[in-house]
Design goal:
This protein has 112 residues and is mainly alpha-helical. The protein contains four helices and no strands. Helix 1 runs antiparallel to helix 3, helix 1 runs parallel beside helix 4 and helix 2 packs across helix 3. The termini are far apart.
């Protein structure tokens, strides 16, 4: 039988991974607005600055999606089911990741 910590941490880890993936999908859809808010005001979508930022954020978002998908597969395979300390650390970082993704998108959503 699983310990009390495992019975809480494993579902929490699953939910935090799903929330982080949803926040990542929000970033994909608001990518252009986020780039425009981060570069100089008179830079157009054809400028080199915009293209560089677009490539950079696209690579980061794809890398994040790939690693989160791999970790979600580990959850489904129950690889980390009984590692309470590892699950606590991962839950903490997934929570930080989901909040930081949301923090990046909220100024863009409210400015539209």
């Amino acid at each position: 039988m699983a310990s009390n910590a495992s019975s809480v941490l494993f579902p929490a880890k699953f939910l935090l991974i799903i929330l982080q993936i949803l926040a990542l999908i929000m970033l994909f859809y608001t990518k252009t607005d986020n780039i425009k808010s981060g570069i100089s005001l008179n830079a157009s979508t054809d400028s080199q600055e915009f293209k560089d930022a677009n490539v950079s954020i696209t690579v980061c978002l794809i890398l994040s999606l790939v690693t989160l998908s791999i970790e979600l597969l580990f959850v489904f395979w129950s690889v980390t089911l009984f590692y309470d300390l590892g699950n606590m650390i991962q839950c903490f970082w997934h929570g930080i990741g989901a909040v930081s993704y949301t923090h990046l998108t909220l100024p863009t959503i409210y400015s539209v």
